[in-house]
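Apologies for my clumsy wording, but are you able to produce some protein sequence, whichever is easiest, and the tokens describing how it folds?
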Amino acid sequence: MTEEVNWRKGRSVVYKNTIHLVFVAKYRRAVFTGEILTALEAIFRETCEQMGSELVECNGDGDHVHLIASVHPRHSISNFVGKLKGKSAYVLRRDYHNEISPWLWGNHLWSPSYCAVSTGGASLDVVRSYVQQQTRPAYPSAKAKGLRPAVPRSSSADRQSPS
């Protein structure tokens, strides 16, 4: 990755949620050629855009693929991975059937497992120190002051009009 990933914005969120993913071909068979890896990158990029995310980097070898993606927080990593692997397997089987079918066991392209690593950039010690240095409020809690919790407003259906 040669450039820094910028903060991304959604309607009610600002995030920098980048993850490094590694997908392995079923039984680590050397299925991927340069042409297939180029097609995979295009498939991954399109899928990321459809999910409101961004593919930052993609590369691979004969039996595995590495991706760095900026993932929107509304998506769980497992859901995101499932979409990427599912669509890519479908498109590759459709477009490169003759090239990959001798290497597949049944119809499975991907191993069901994957590796996902957060790429936040800060070490755990730095994050832990940051959290520990947060300033706690010096004032006592509302309960210690003897204040009552706010009473929820009743809905209009609960209100009775005078007869």
